[in-house]
Amino acid sequence: MSSFFKKTACVTGIILLGLFGLIGFYSTTLPDFYLVSKGSELSVNSFFTISSKPCESKVTVAVSGGSSGASRYTKNMLMLFGAVPVKEVESKTMERPMLYPCGQPFGIKLLTEGVMVVDLQKVDSSSPAKDCGIREGDVIVSIDGEKVKSNADVAKIIRSSNGEACSVRIKRGSNDLTFKLCPRLESGSYKAGMWVRDSSAGIGTLTFYDPENGTFGGLGHPVCDADTKEPLPLSAGTVGEINLTGFNKSRSGCPGQLLGEFANSASTGDILKNCESGVFGTLNANPCPNAKEFPLGFRQEIHPGKAKILSSIDNDGPKEYEISIEQINLSDSAEHDLVIKVTDKTLLEKTGGILQGMSGSPIIQDGRLVGAVTHVFIEDTAKGYGIFADEMYSKTSELAESTIENAG
């Protein structure tokens, strides 16, 4: 009998150890906040069943305008197997937004807030900018109290300094710093020993358009400086129509690229935000009025398996291509949300998989807009990363609410 009890205790211990391991895993990898469709209960698509139950009174918050309408915030306890508490989270119950997935290319023009330092160079024997503490990626806001908006502004102030120390105010991440830069004379002109950039232009893919407030989301990642790889601080930006002229096919070790040019100088909208989740702003008109609206899919609803992307590789407009969602990372600290793989034979034969410029291509699963393509794998161009669509939608919601508040 004692042997039986020992075996039972051993098995029970193993089960409990495994259970505690699962609780720890889900507690770490599941996010602390969720969007939930009105009339639905919070649950998470996972290998093991994750449901929830309210653990606090609901609080109703009125949201002015927007397709989300009035929202309800609730404290919930996530439950493993419907019985084992995992962690307390917050959810926002809302009307599921209806969006137009786009999948068409758009031109991006950005003017930076200040100018970004992209290179440090020697003047005579050393770089005055580097010597005073300035780094590549710093954003110069003003010199001697004078705001700078272009590389011409910087050059003019430095040339007129007569070698006197200049007070340079910069932004470095969230820090606001000031340095004393001493220009040096070279070839009859005073120089700072740095190259700066004040604008950028490129091609991306529109992810969605929200007809409720005229906002859009695109790219799924920030527009970064080509040299520093840092997100460009936005002062102003516009979007425009693009004519695709072709593409370089992707192959292992060398991702291809969409090629195109601005159709004209006319602006079709404004970029109001350039951040880790993409570029966001307003459009003058619906870019895909004949397309079908899709409901927004929330991250906890996504599951591994078949899906589609909408993307354009020529001027015939966006087409659907089959993909597989291979990995989903719900963790708030995840560097990438999704791993996808192109399975569509037509796209693989034509492009070799994902092309640079397809970033922002909407991902559709189970009749919902669930994400957007963001990056291509260098060594396997059939694969790439994606971002959750609800993350991108939250940025357009913030823009809409901010516009309403400012108008009020």
Can you describe this structure?
By secondary structure, the protein is of the alpha+beta class. The protein has 3 domains: 2-95, no CATH class; 100-108 and 199-403, Thrombin, subunit H (Beta Barrel), CATH 2.40.10; 122-192, Pdz3 Domain. The protein contains 5 helices and 27 strands. A 6-stranded antiparallel beta barrel has the order 7-14-15-20-19-16. The radius of gyration is 25 Å and the shape is globular. Belongs to the peptidase S1C family. GO terms for molecular function: serine-type endopeptidase activity.
Write a brief structural summary.
By secondary structure, this protein is α+β, with helices and mostly antiparallel strands.
Task: Give the topology.
Layout: H1 2-29, E1 33-37, E2 50-54, E3 59-61, E4 71-80, E5 84-94, E6 98-101, E7 105-120, H2 128-132, E8 139-143, E9 146-147, H3 151-159, E10 166-172, E11 175-181, E12 184-186, E13 189-191, E14 194-210, E15 215-218, E16 234-240, E17 242-248, E18 257-262, E19 269-275, E20 278-283, E21 294-295, E22 305-311, E23 319-328, E24 338-342, H4 345-351, E25 362-365, E26 368-376, E27 383-388, H5 389-407
Parallel strand pairs: 1-5
Antiparallel strand pairs: 2-4, 3-4, 4-5, 6-14, 6-21, 7-8, 7-14, 7-16, 8-9, 8-10, 10-11, 12-13, 14-15, 15-20, 16-19, 17-18, 19-20, 22-23, 22-25, 23-24, 24-27, 25-26, 26-27
